[in-house]
Amino acid sequence: MQSNYLLNRFFKNRPKSFGNFLALIGVLVLTPDTMIMRFSNLDRWPLMGWRGLLMGITLLIIWRLFFFSNAGKKWSSIFTWHGIIVVFAFTINSVTFTLGIQETSVMVVLTAVATMPVFAAILSTFMMNESQGWAGWLTIFAAMIGVAVVVSDGHNAIGHPQGSIVLGAVYGCITAIGLALAFTMVRKYHDIEVIPAAAIGSLLSGIIGFSLSVDGSIFVAPIWTVFTMGVVILPFSFALLIIAPRYTTSAIVSLVMLLEMVIGPFWVWIGIGERPSMIMIFGAFLVISVITLHIIRTHFFLKH
Q1: Residue 261 CB partners (closer than 8 Å, separation 6+)
Q2: What is the number of other CB atoms lying within 10 angstroms of the CB of residue 119?
Q3: Is residue 79 part of a domain?
């Protein structure tokens, strides 16, 4: 009891630490997601269906329990043109992430997804008139070189699906663009309610997945894998990552989210033996390094 009191008092006096804590827990919850996807042994469409349906329902329950005040205004924000764009963006990134993981190596897809801050920077240039400067564009160029390095050696990964490496990387980049678009829109239009928008987007991706599933392929996965992905990992990690920027900076959250690119492939390596090559690891390290340095430079040093 005393420890809970001290913990609450610590975070109350240090809101930024609380936000950092939420972001860290959110990412750590998210990191085993790709490993559980592999354990499910589901085809891409039923996998997409279960993930989208269960995540959407659980997010709506979380929103109903914890964020339901002034519900009418919040719902109406989703059915504006910019709210619909956010829903569409969440639908697209939910679809393409599943397709990418089922197509090729986890390292390839997560490296491509990790470029989300790069695409956010590009979108903010056009949507919010935020200048990136020469260093920003150099970061974007270097990050894309890193992705190209990972993709170029993707065929040397051990135990990965035998699909198209390039297509898997494209799916990862589309996922990154979808996330960047959603969060840039939310930055610009503060009235958009993110959690129900993400929930509707997830439900739509689930409908797409089930509608394209072959008969008899939906109920073949171990129940624990479907439940863990759709009810625990996805909704709770996403909810925590949405709440975190209310207490800390979005730059910190972006930095912490890069941990998924480091830890996610490690879980898959340990769990099923899918192992990236050393060249792929080098390319991923290049991506995470340049994005980390760019975020630190632009959001910490240039503001002081």
Answers
A1: 110, 111, 113, 114, 284, 287, 288
A2: 21
A3: yes
